[in-house]
Amino acid sequence: MEHNLEHTIALLERTPATLNALLRDLPEAWTSPNEGENTFSAFDVVGHLIHGERTDWMPRTKRLLESGESVPFDKFDRLAQERDSIGKTLPQLLDEFARLRAENIAALRALNLKADDFSRRGRHQMLGVVTLSQLIATWAAHDLTHLHQISRVMAHQYRDAVGPWTKFLGVMQCNGHSE
Amino acid sequence: MEHNLEHTIALLERTPATLNALLRDLPEAWTSPNEGENTFSAFDVVGHLIHGERTDWMPRTKRLLESGESVPFDKFDRLAQERDSIGKTLPQLLDEFARLRAENIAALRALNLKADDFSRRGRHQMLGVVTLSQLIATWAAHDLTHLHQISRVMAHQYRDAVGPWTKFLGVMQCNGHSE
Question: Tens digit of pLDDT for each residue in B29-63?
Fold first, then answer.
């Protein structure tokens, strides 16, 4: 389907509660392990989403609206959470994500974007010219890619435990490991 | 990690609330479409999970405990929801899933399984001999495979909308399409 702002916001609004329902007070045996070297745990993902709320989606939206294609977006630090999450608990991160997301959705609504605005263009430092519509759709799809990742990372912890069933479980076959 | 009943139950308990937070009252533009012919929508997945609660996990656990390897599990109907979900709304299915899951977790706890029980063996009609530990671990991993699937099916609806970002989104690359 084409991008639809209300559909996007409906999804963006639900992600904090979804992660809260899935992860809060879940044993660390599920939330701390990752899939191996240089991969994210569920804990890491929540920190990564927080960093996106702070530095990616709304800052890029504002850059695009203010500067168009003339000033590219700032580079996103995919590993910021290794620094920023130190000393924090997962419940603290879930609370922080929920607060930032609510603020950003309010800021997005306050822009009062009109149909014409969605074709406005900005510049991504690697992808080149992108539209506002693509940027905001990606915000929602990025939530889904990390929900997809969290379910895969957690399932990975039971790869041996499920024995022969592993071949019936799509999540054990997934190769969608990029971010 | 090895199978751990309390870890498994912690996950099984959270899935209804997770799906509720993600899907309840979400626009049908997200929950009705699938990934193409013979694939599941988010709506289909919830119906499929309900059928699992009714016919798969606890009935198989009881079969294994009662009959060991001598009587194989009944075959699971992967498409039962096409029949059973007719005329129901997604909120109704979410409620039904939550109720059945709570009943089944209570039934699982009531079995008072001991460490020795988890190595008891049953027979899967295709996989052959399986252990109780593997069966119960798969119950939880099956939740994760369908959370993984739902996030992928929903992201698929924005495949075009995200434009060039599709190559950065792992969920758009996922090939873990089996069940």
Answer: 999 999 999 999 999 999 999 999 999 999 999 99
Identify the residue whose tokens are 């071949």. A167
Residues 6+ apart with CB under 8 A from B64: B73, B120, B121, B122, B132, B135
Measured distance between the N- and C-terminal CA atoms of chain B, rounded to whole angstroms: 22
pLDDT of residue B179: 45
Please give the residue of chain A at the shortest CA–CA distance from B171.
A145
Integer Cα distance of B5 and B118 in angstroms: 9
Q: Choose the closest CB to B14 out of A26, A127, A164.
A: A26
- Arithmetic mean of pLDDT, B101-109: 98
B143, B162, B166, B179: best mutation site toward chain A, by most A Cβ within 10 Å?
B162
Main-chain phi, psi angles of B129, to 5 degrees: -75, 130
Tell me the nearest-neighbour CA distance from A34 into chain B, angstroms.
12
Which residues share a beta bridge with A122? A130
d(CA B153, CA A20): 21
Compare all CA atoms of chain B with the CA of A167 and give the residue at the minimum distance: B178
CATH topology of domain B5-173: Four Helix Bundle (Hemerythrin (Met), subunit A) (1.20.120)
Segments in chain B forming alpha helices (H): 5-23, 28-31, 42-55, 57-67, 81-84, 90-110, 132-156, 170-173
Assess contact for A48 and B28: CB atoms under 8 A.
no
Q: Which of A7, A145, A171 sits opposite B29 (nearest CB)?
A: A7
**Predicted confidence band of residue A177 (pLDDT cuts 50, 70, 90):** low
> Which residue of B134, B141, B162 is in closest CB contact with A134?
B162
Per-residue tokens: A67: 């500067």
Q: Is A137 close to B162, i.e. CB distance below 8 A?
A: yes
Quick check: A128 and B22 CB within 8 A? no
Asked whether A84 and A47 are in contact (CB, 8 A), the reply is: yes
Q: Which of A4, A154, A173 sits opposite B176 (nearest CB)?
A: A173
Indicate the burial class of A170 (C-beta count within 10 angstroms; 0-12, 13-18, 19 or more): buried
Q: Is the pLDDT of residue A125 over 50?
A: yes
